[in-house]
Amino acid sequence: MKIRVSAVQYHLHTIRSFEDFAKQCEHYIKTAQEFGAEFVLFPEFFTTQLLSIGSEQGTTLTINELPGFTDQYRSLFSNFAKDTNMHIIGGTHVINREGRLYNVAHLFYPDGRIEEQAKLHITPTEVHEWNMSPGEGLQVFDTEKGRIAVLTCYDIEFPEIVRMAKAKGADVIFCPSCTDDRHGFHRVRYTSHARAIENQVYVVLTGTIGSLPTVDFMRANFGQAAVITPNDIPFPPKGIMVEGELNDDMIVTADLDLSLLYEVRERGSVTTWRDRRTDLYIDWEKENIEG
C-alpha cells in the first residue's frame, strides 16, 4: 500500500479578505492535485492569516476573534476535499468550545466527514499569551489508505503520545507545526526523527513561513516541510524522503510505502517497536486493548 502525500510550506502575509485566504489555499490544493497527492498537510496556525484582515472599523483582530471564521474555514476545506477527492489535514484552527480556546487540527475526508484532534500539549506562549486549553484525548483515524494520527507541533516532542498512536495502529503521523525561530524548528524536527525511529512510522511534517506584522506572536516564522522515515536500509540513510527549501513558499510531495514499515518491523537492522522492554515500562498496546 502506497500513499502519496504533499506538505505545504504555507506563506503567511497580510491579506484583505477571506477570499484572499481562500484563493491562496486553493493554489496549494490545486498544486497538490496536479502532483497526484492523496493526502495534503497544511501547517499549524496557518488560519491566523485571517486576523491580518482586521475589523471593519480598522482595528487589529486578536486570537479571540479567530473562532469567528470557523464556519467559513470548515466549509472551504470540506469543499476542497470533496472536489479533489483528497484527504486534507487542514493544519490547525483555533475554535471556541464552551468559552475555552482550543488549537484543533482538522481532517477533511473526501466524503464530507470532518474529524478533529485538539493539540494535547500546550506551549507556554499558548497558555500565557493566548489562554489556550489542551485537548482531552488522542484519536486515530481510519482512511482508505491506512490508519493515521495527527499530532501538532509540541505534541511530537513527547514520546509517550506517539507510542500511544502507534499502539492504536497509526502508521503515519501528520505533524502540522508553527515555529518562530531555529531553536523551535529544530526541536520539532529532531524529535520527529526520534519518533519515526522509535515507532517505525512515517512522520509528515510542515510549518508556516513568512510574517504577519499585525498579528501578535505570528510576526516571525521559520519552517520547512519534510517526510521523515525510520533509519533502516529500505529508506534513505538520513531518514529524509523529501524536504523543502527552508522558508520558501512551496509544496513537497512523496510516496509512502507502508509495506516497508511492516518489513522493517519484522526484519529490520533494528526492530525498535518489537524490542520494547514492556517488562520495564508500560505496554501501550496492552493498555489500548484493556482500555
TrEMBL record:
<feature type="domain" description="CN hydrolase">
    <location>
        <begin position="3"/>
        <end position="258"/>
    </location>
</feature>
<protein>
    <submittedName>
        <fullName>Putative amidohydrolase</fullName>
    </submittedName>
</protein>
<dbReference type="InterPro" id="IPR036526">
    <property type="entry name" value="C-N_Hydrolase_sf"/>
</dbReference>
<dbReference type="Pfam" id="PF00795">
    <property type="entry name" value="CN_hydrolase"/>
</dbReference>
<comment type="similarity">
    <text>Belongs to the carbon-nitrogen hydrolase superfamily. NIT1/NIT2 family.</text>
</comment>
<dbReference type="GO" id="GO:0016787">
    <property type="term" value="F:hydrolase activity"/>
</dbReference>
<keyword id="KW-0378">Hydrolase</keyword>
<dbReference type="InterPro" id="IPR001110">
    <property type="entry name" value="UPF0012_CS"/>
</dbReference>
<dbReference type="InterPro" id="IPR003010">
    <property type="entry name" value="C-N_Hydrolase"/>
</dbReference>
